[in-house]
Write a structure and sequence with these properties.
alpha/beta, Rossmann fold, 7-stranded mixed β-sheet, 11 helices, binds S-adenosylmethionine
């Protein structure tokens, strides 16, 4: 795929910021299992406008260092602003294409990449890049979605149709919205001993993430139009979904975030569940 599926839009920056915030508790739980990060060097690949920067900043502490990398300069600018607002003094940001990375080989104790395989669909190349940058004994953490739990109660046919179209748009662009399911096998095939956990969010009617199908519909509009082929039909679907998702009786569950991690250079990752 030559161009990143969701590149360069204000709506995408807002979506990623919300996404980072809603998944922060899940990330914190995972880092507790990885162990003590004080003084470590951590990299968040494709950090977007926030990603794991706050979590990693806390995890490595004042003696550690966090680098956030991305190829979208608008995202990096926004990330720099948020890092400054939150006084994340151990966080730096850098333009770096993960597929032609200029970062230090074996330079990081922990590398995290979230929601990268799903849109980019280049899992093997991505993994090769991460493994080259990890120090011996370092930890790789990947987080990717599995769509199966993304549901509304009572059923919301228009929103569910949008969810299905979003999955098709990812497929058509060479990605995979269910990339999370393959993570353990992917790491295992590289000789690693992966651990896996999952998180699903309950989305009450006023939770902004309940509206994720609408946010995606904005970010992916040209792709959805290609699939539906009719602007009026897409607008009608979005309007119906909007109405369904503003119903105060309705709630939902998010897609499943599959969290998979492994330590390089031998044995299983330590830590208790
Ligand atoms: C779906 S977003 C996920 C952002 C962040 N990881 C998070 O979970 O909030 C994907 C991010 O990957 C970045 N990206 C796309 N291609 C990239 C590449 N080749 N190298 C580094 N970052 C890339 C995009 O600019 C975007 O910020």
């Amino acid at each position: 795929m030559s161009e990143y599926l969701l590149a360069g839009q204000e709506s995408e920056i807002d979506r990623l910021r919300l996404q980072s915030i809603v998944w922060e508790p899940a990330g914190r739980r995972l880092l507790e299992l990885v162990g003590d990060g004080r003084g470590r060097r951590a990299l968040d690949v494709g950090c977007g406008c926030l990603g794991w920067l706050r979590l990693l900043s806390d995890w490595v502490g004042e003696l550690g260092a966090v680098l956030g990398s991305d190829i979208d300069t608008k995202m990096l600018e926004r990330a720099a602003g948020l890092a400054e607002e939150d006084s994340l003094v151990n966080v730096r940001l850098m333009y770096d294409d993960l597929f032609a990375s200029g970062l230090e080989r074996r330079g990081f104790d922990l590398i995290h990449a979230r929601l990268m395989i799903a849109p980019l669909g280049r899992a093997e190349e991505q993994l090769t890049s991460h493994l080259a940058l990890l120090a011996p004994g370092g930890t790789l953490v990947l987080e990717e979605p599995d769509c199966a739990s993304w549901r509304f109660n009572a059923p919301a046919p228009a929103a569910e149709r949008l969810v299905a179209l979003i999955g098709e748009a990812f497929d058509a662009a060479g990605g995979d919205f269910n990339a999370g399911r393959s993570l353990p096998a992917l790491l295992h095939d590289r000789g690693l001993t992966p651990r896996v956990r999952t998180e699903v969010l309950a989305l009450e009617h006023d939770h902004p993430y309940l509206r994720l199908p609408l946010q995606f519909a904005a970010a992916l509009r040209p792709r959805l139009l290609e699939l539906i082929g009719d602007e009026a039909a897409l607008d009608a679907l979005i309007a119906d979904a909007e109405q369904e998702l503003t119903d105060p009786e309705r709630w939902g569950t998010s897609f499943t975030m599959v969290q998979c991690w492994a330590r390089t250079g031998g044995g299983p990752v330590t830590g208790t569940r």
